[in-house]
Write a structure and sequence with these properties.
The structure holds two protein chains of two kinds. By secondary structure, chain A is of the alpha+beta class. Chain A has two domains: 33 residues; 115 residues, OB fold (Dihydrolipoamide Acetyltransferase, E2P). Chain A contains three helices and seven strands, in the order H-E-H-E-E-E-E-E-E-H. Chain A has a five-stranded mixed beta barrel with strand order 2-4-5-7-6. In chain A, a hairpin with a 5-residue loop joins strand 3 and strand 4. By secondary structure, chain B is of the alpha+beta class. Chain B folds into four domains: 160 residues, no CATH class; 252 residues, no CATH class; 90 residues; 101 residues, no CATH class. Chain B is 63% helix and 12% strand. In chain B, helix 9 packs antiparallel against helix 18 and helix 10 runs antiparallel to helix 11. Classes of the chains: A alpha+beta, B alpha+beta. Chains A and B meet through helix 1 and strand 1 of A and helix 13, strand 1, helix 14, strand 2 and strand 8 of B.
Chain lengths: 151, 659
């Protein structure tokens, strides 16, 4: 092989390798990205069926229920317009409390119950996941915008 | 009084850094000898000023001066003295001050280290570091002043976040930042060389020990952070692919590529422009990481600052620094040509593949980290990218890399292939495969394909790295520190591969509900809930459980996990309890009262987890050994000689071959 051809083979190999890595990355990406939805989006049917996603909102006060001695817990996540019942089995994070923001990973059952496999906690007790904060703010804004019409 | 002094010192440091930057860059360019002479005094002065500022803030913490807002927010009179000092970097403002302080330390070390070099070059390096320092000082003073006063003063502080009240975490930020900031030195050398247009091998030789030092610190810092997450975050996770972890990991990957590429540039004068690019990229990743962490643009367990002005400032700084460096690169790179060529099977090409794989890995991590931001900005929906993406993607580039190292170690420079070393390579590979299969068949047949592959590659790598050094010793040849360091670091990588794949495959974890006296099986062990008692700490109270771990009826460990309630912030913390065994760690964390006398308990068995951090430590030791090689101590003399005798124009000559 001439040096030039050798170099071209070399470059072609590298390009091929990078292309394969890139293709795999995109594939892994498409399969493993989880989207965020709030209860209103769920009520509007925006969630693709059977897909794993992240649910965010506030834990409704007084909604946390568990049968004594069991790891299974039920609570309601709300954005003050719509509610989603959530069921989770396992240890809840330290910062999980009624009336605070929460993000849960899981799937929606056909009955409309969100079965979470992970409930997230953050370092800071005042912390609210930004998407929850924004979603709640949007809801709030749209509620206040509607008020003048109602009066 | 002290806070004002500290702020004043910071302002002086800002002015001195401006002088350092201006004289350092303009002095050699315009040939003003007196300008150049004033750079080192500016460096020294800036160091003293920054040290004064740090001292003032530490004093405010130690004296419980709650009229300082930062102290009031991150300390408390009940906080032990040790944590009052460590609280300095407990939040955004102090972390930045730490960043600046460490940069000042590095700069001072560089000023001493390059003192005997040609003045124009040394001064340029310091000038570039001055620009970096100026940016960060300006950022601190403009948006994140740690010395702001509270009026009226707070009666007591809001306490340090309980999660940060831990010895490992007290040490984690300084070590991690030392690594982060250290890449500024390699960056400064690269920029200085480009400003000068003199890009010969001397540049690479000078940069190598600094890059290795930064890399070693970064390795330790990341490992320490992971260790802390494992035992202090409470739930036994050790790596989350969290954006902030990624932010520290990307410079590590690029930095690893850099130290390998520097080897080829130093030894053979190859990949000059690529090495320059990596030096710029490594520091860019550090800056990008700082931006991601400090601007609060990403959802992360670490992001404590959510102030848009800060984000915009760092973004502008990032663009100026990286944009400037790349413009310089675009200006100078066309002049870079390597004389030497190399064969497809040679050490050079293996190093090149190493670089490609590492950069690809860094790129996939970067893509996954930035994807949520991009998707959000383009209104494509709010998404998150988790371990399901990062884990497999990382393996795609890392598994081939492990195999490449085992073979590439035996490739000669320039040409010659690996034919001579074929026997040892194949024998070690055979041993690796046998061990991997033995583990697979013998112990953990249910574990999936990853572990045998990881263990085989790890064993192969360890044995393969030992061949050459052992052969040298057997023949009575000496072993240079550089070769020794490389061997040690590669063994560390092998240990890491074995440990991490084992952890990923063989971890048993279960949440269980137990009443006192009850027990439940997890991963071949019985976990028995013995009793519950109350605990009292200096600034917390809570409950503690006693849990006995049994295997086939025999007591293995007695663990005492706690649920703590910290008074000042009112926060609840899970203190996991861990039994450390040579081959595995058993972790128990106490959940909550489930009613009916039962508590939720997380039980987790992670095999070889300690070796993940030990491996990182071994790698870092390898880095330190390599940089202590004799030739770097004599490098300065050599560089002087080259400068005196040379006078040859910028790294010239013909057609770069290879990539």
């Amino acid at each position: 092989m001439t040096p030039r051809r050798k170099r071209m083979t070399f470059v072609a190999g590298v390009v091929l390798g990078v292309a394969i890595a890139g293709g795999l990355a995109l594939r892994a990406f498409q399969n493993n990205v989880t989207f965020f939805f709030d209860p209103s989006q769920i009520a509007a049917g925006e969630v693709p069926k059977g897909e794993r996603f992240r649910l965010g909102g506030m834990v409704t006060k007084g909604s946390v229920e568990r049968s004594p001695g069991s790891l299974e817990v039920h609570f309601i996540v709300t954005d003050f317009k719509h509610d989603v019942p959530v069921s989770y089995t396992g240890v809840l994070p330290d910062l999980f409390r009624e009336g605070t923001g929460v993000v849960a990973h899981g799937r929606l059952t056909p009955q409309g119950v969100f079965v979470a496999d992970e409930v997230l906690a953050k370092h800071d007790e005042n912390y609210m996941p930004p998407e929850v904060a924004r979603s709640l703010k949007d809801q709030h804004a749209s509620v206040t915008r509607k008020l003048p019409d109602a009066s | 009084m002290l806070p004002e002094l500290g702020e004043f010192a910071l302002i002086l440091a800002l002015l001195l850094s401006a002088l350092q930057a201006f004289f350092g860059i303009a002095g050699p360019a315009l040939g003003r000898a007196r300008w150049q002479d004033s750079v080192v005094p500016a460096v020294a002065g800036q160091f003293v000023m920054v040290l004064t500022a740090v001292g003032c803030l530490v004093a405010s913490f130690v004296n419980n001066d709650f009229s300082v807002q930062y102290v009031a927010e991150n300390s408390n009179s009940a906080l032990p003295l040790f944590y009052r000092v460590a609280a300095l970097w407990g939040a955004h403002e102090g972390s930045l001050l730490l960043w600046i302080f460490l940069l000042a330390c590095w700069t001072l070390a560089v000023a001493i280290g390059v003192a005997r070099l040609r003045q124009a070059f040394a001064v340029r390096v310091l000038g570039v570091l001055g620009v970096v320092s100026f940016g960060f000082l300006l950022f601190t003073l403009a948006t994140s002043n740690p010395f702001l006063r509270l009026d009226p003063a707070a009666p007591d502080g809001r306490d340090l976040n309980p999660l940060l009240q831990d010895p490992a975490l007290a040490a984690h930020p300084p070590i991690l930042y030392t690594g982060y900031v250290g890449f500024a030195v390699a960056f400064a050398f690269a920029c200085a060389a480009m400003l000068e247009g003199k890009l010969d091998e001397t540049w690479a030789r000078l940069t190598r020990p600094w890059a290795s030092a930064a890399w070693a610190f970064l390795t330790c810092g990341i490992a320490l952070g992971s260790w802390w997450a494992y035992y202090d975050l409470g739930w036994g996770g050790y790596w989350f692919w969290d954006p902030v972890e990624n932010a520290s990991f990307m410079p590590w990957l690029v930095g690893t590529a850099l130290i390998h590429s520097l080897a080829a540039t130093e030894k053979r004068g190859l990949f000059k422009s690529w090495t320059l690019l990596l030096a710029i990229l490594a520091f860019s990743m550090s800056l990008l990481g700082t931006f991601l962490v400090r601007s609060g643009v990403l959802v992360s367990v670490h992001s404590f600052a959510a102030d848009p002005t800060r984000g915009i400032f760092i973004l502008i700084f990032l663009i100026v620094m990286i944009g400037g460096a790349f413009s310089l690169y675009a200006w100078r790179a066309p002049a870079l040509r390597s004389k030497a060529g190399f064969e497809i099977v040679s050490r050079e090409s293996f190093l090149l593949f190493n670089n490609i794989l590492l950069v690809v890995a860094a790129a996939t991590v970067l893509g996954g980290t930035l994807a949520p931001l991009i998707s959000d900005a383009l209104h494509l929906g709010t998404l998150s990218v988790g371990p399901q993406y990062f884990g497999p993607m990382f393996l795609v580039s890392m598994l081939p890399l492990l195999a490449l190292v085992s073979v590439g170690l035996h490739a000669k420079w320039k040409r010659g292939g690996v034919v001579e070393a074929r026997r040892p390579i194949l024998i070690t590979l055979g041993v690796g495969v046998v061990v991997g299969l033995a583990v697979f068949v013998g112990a953990f047949a249910d574990a999936g394909w990853l572990t045998p592959v990881g263990i085989a590659l790890g064993v192969w790598l360890i044995l393969s790295s030992l061949i050459d050094p052992l052969d040298r010793l057997r023949r009575g040849l000496s072993l240079s520190r550089a070769v020794l360091g490389m061997t040690v670091a590669h063994i560390g990588l092998g240990v890491f591969a074995i440990a991490v794949t084992s952890v990923q495959s063989f971890t048993h974890e279960r949440d269980i509900a137990l009443a006192i006296g009850e027990s439940a099986p997890v991963g071949g062990y019985q976990f028995r809930f013995d009793k519950l008692e109350s605990v009292d700490g200096p600034n917390y109270d809570g409950v503690g459980a006693q849990i006995s771990v049994l295997r086939e009826g025999a007591l293995v460990a007695v663990l005492h996990p706690e649920k703590r309630h910290y008074f000042v912030q009112g926060s609840v913390m899970t203190e996991a309890s861990i039994a450390v065994k040579p081959t595995r760690n058993i972790l128990v964390a106490l959940g909550e009262d489930l009613g009916a006398g039962r508590w939720s308990i997380r039980a987790q068995i992670r095999p070889l987890i300690n070796y993940v951090w030990i491996a990182a430590l071994i790698m870092a030791i390898g880095g330190v050994l390599a940089l202590s090689d004799r030739r770097y101590r004599t490098a300065r003399v050599a560089a002087e000689r080259a400068a005196a005798g040379g006078g040859s124009a910028a790294g010239t000559a013909v057609g770069e071959q290879g990539a």
